[in-house]
């Protein structure tokens, strides 16, 4: 068994948008590498073990992160590196994987909800439609200078760029053929309590960014698919057209509607903060309840592994002797079986089938051999 490094997508920001597999990796981790500036602290606090080591990789050098990987390889530790959104988008995943492979570490990637998906969900739009745009162009901070060539395709674009350079971005969009009335969605800290999600146009984009004082890296969704949809007239529903079907309750819905047990004993003197795990009205209560069982299982297994193991020889000897005693009631001559079992006390598996009795060799055959 060797160490393992899991690159987990923490989602766009909200703690309850992490995947169940990602939360499980955090619960099993000995070391969690994360950046509090881009990953919600509640996401780590709810899932990490109390004895897990937390490292803010945004405040340490790259050599310190490599040292964590080296300790994981030597001590067979499980490490989780949290990425904002999805690890496959602007996360530097390839370089980190190469370092881990040189150190002999196993790696796996857990996908996450990207900021692009969260921004589109915040405004209730789809980024690709059959009649307007059937493709999506992703432009990172280092490729923002090529927006002019991307805009010439006339498709939907997701641009991650500095808000301080919005004027240059508008010039390139216009040079690529985008009209001033082209819809734009500006998303900053999407899904967090202090998020900023604004719908505007290319012509008013620079003024909108200055109004909301967005100077750091911001996500811009550009395309005609982001326009307000025209209202559709619904045909009247006639009773009896379709049979009424009742949904079956799933385990997730049962967990979400499960009443929270009240703590026994006297009420606390100081009001304690309500966490999503104890607040039934919280949108993330169902997610915390769903993963709580295997979280505790992972922590219990880890605590049991640290305990001192019992010696292997004595219990195995008792197992062999007990099996020999059970065979004594079946076989009239158990001595050869007990003697054979005593020789196998150092093996891992003990056979319960008695050996076939072989004929005793004569003194003449022993001398011949």
From TrEMBL:
<keyword id="KW-0169">Cobalamin biosynthesis</keyword>
<keyword id="KW-0808">Transferase</keyword>
<feature type="domain" description="Tetrapyrrole methylase">
    <location>
        <begin position="5"/>
        <end position="205"/>
    </location>
</feature>
<dbReference type="GO" id="GO:0032259">
    <property type="term" value="P:methylation"/>
</dbReference>
<keyword id="KW-0949">S-adenosyl-L-methionine</keyword>
<comment type="similarity">
    <text>Belongs to the precorrin methyltransferase family.</text>
</comment>
<comment type="pathway">
    <text>Cofactor biosynthesis; adenosylcobalamin biosynthesis.</text>
</comment>
<feature type="region of interest" description="Disordered">
    <location>
        <begin position="231"/>
        <end position="292"/>
    </location>
</feature>
<dbReference type="InterPro" id="IPR003043">
    <property type="entry name" value="Uropor_MeTrfase_CS"/>
</dbReference>
<dbReference type="InterPro" id="IPR014776">
    <property type="entry name" value="4pyrrole_Mease_sub2"/>
</dbReference>
<keyword id="KW-0489">Methyltransferase</keyword>
<dbReference type="InterPro" id="IPR035996">
    <property type="entry name" value="4pyrrol_Methylase_sf"/>
</dbReference>
<dbReference type="InterPro" id="IPR006362">
    <property type="entry name" value="Cbl_synth_CobM/CibF"/>
</dbReference>
<protein>
    <submittedName>
        <fullName>SAM-dependent methyltransferase</fullName>
    </submittedName>
</protein>
<dbReference type="InterPro" id="IPR000878">
    <property type="entry name" value="4pyrrol_Mease"/>
</dbReference>
<feature type="compositionally biased region" description="Low complexity">
    <location>
        <begin position="281"/>
        <end position="290"/>
    </location>
</feature>
<feature type="region of interest" description="Disordered">
    <location>
        <begin position="325"/>
        <end position="369"/>
    </location>
</feature>
<dbReference type="Pfam" id="PF00590">
    <property type="entry name" value="TP_methylase"/>
</dbReference>
<dbReference type="GO" id="GO:0008168">
    <property type="term" value="F:methyltransferase activity"/>
</dbReference>
<dbReference type="InterPro" id="IPR014777">
    <property type="entry name" value="4pyrrole_Mease_sub1"/>
</dbReference>
<dbReference type="InterPro" id="IPR050161">
    <property type="entry name" value="Siro_Cobalamin_biosynth"/>
</dbReference>
<feature type="compositionally biased region" description="Low complexity">
    <location>
        <begin position="336"/>
        <end position="356"/>
    </location>
</feature>
